[in-house]
């Protein structure tokens, strides 16, 4: 039987009829892409990849999209490989042309299986020439792709681009140089004919790209690219989202139930709504109870932060160790613990004393401010409320943190 509406979909990016059309965000992306590239910013699990996949699958007449998952690349070689492979995958006729230049490595290129081709390509990139040559070859491939396919524009979608740069940085000095090289090259490409008109990029990222790039002292390389932020749903959007899921499940609820879902969720992030709906529907099925505001409240208190859904937020904790220096991560952990335990906000001075307890004499106010900026741009904290003080970025994450990392 054909499914009429969205199902509950928790965890991986959403696609097809499960995708709730974030019309405003998508319109903003399209509008900005008409004239240039964009940074797509949002915390992990806010729905970036879903939007990027939607744009890949619904690019409109003008754009020919190619989607890259960059989170697992740690070097320029990996990035080069991914770039070339994806172009060739999207236009296999280019494989032959490309391999002509490297006849030895690609004997009988049409006959080798895909995975053999991949291995050969990897070896080739490692051996034949450095970045200076490869970046020209990539440019040539982009050029050929434009000539072959004749799209009005190519759209390269780089999912988790700042995480890839961070991975480079973690590899040491060479990696740091490589990150700057990629940024410089991409900037040059964006400004060069015919690519200026014919190539667009989406740089998607769940850690603050500004932080990574300013660490590299390379802000200049990206300051021509405007950002589109993906935030929570507005209330009417969230109501529509909830109603569509309930209707697809043939469940009718009173309007006060929808209001209760909005209230209990707080910050209306799609995955929070999905989890709450999932737990309420399961609880109602299991217990035979009607879905009421009281049941919604009970599920928030007892189920949504339970083991079933714990894993979806664990990355927020783990990445502190991955993307912050050891001492910074220790301080961040203590600060977040303090914020999770506090009823309201916490004054910056109180957090600074936690910071100096850990860093000792080394703790200086400027470095502390930098850490707070990083936590803010990585979406852990909020610090611009009119009443002052520092807060966890939203209550759902705060409750999750208190439960799992509050001791
Ligand atoms: N447009 C959407 N429609 C429905 N659910 C969504 C949407 N965007 C995000 N979600 C929910 O959020 C989860 C994470 O989405 P994803 O796109 O992977 O986020 P990100 O790339 O920002 O980490 C999905 O599994 C789904 O539960
Ligand atoms: Mg993603």
CATH topology grouping of the largest domain: Rossmann fold
Bound molecules: adenosine-5'-diphosphate, magnesium ion
Query: What is the CA–CA distance across the termini?
Result: 49 Å
Tell me the CATH superfamily of the largest domain. Answer: P-loop containing nucleotide triphosphate hydrolases
Number of helices: 19
Q: Which whole number gives the mean pLDDT?
A: 91
User: Which class of the largest domain in CATH terms?
Assistant: Alpha Beta
Largest beta sheet: what is the strand line-up? 2-3-4-1-5
Order of helices and strands: HEHEHHHHEHHHEHEHHHHHHHHEEH
**Globular, elongated, flat, extended or rod-shaped: what is the shape?**
globular
The major β-sheet equals: 5 strands, parallel
Q: What is the strand tally? A: 7
Class from secondary-structure proportions? alpha/beta
Structural domain tally: 3
- Uncertain spans, ≥5 residues at pLDDT below 50? none
What percent of the residues sit in helical stretches (DSSP H or I)?
A: 55-70%
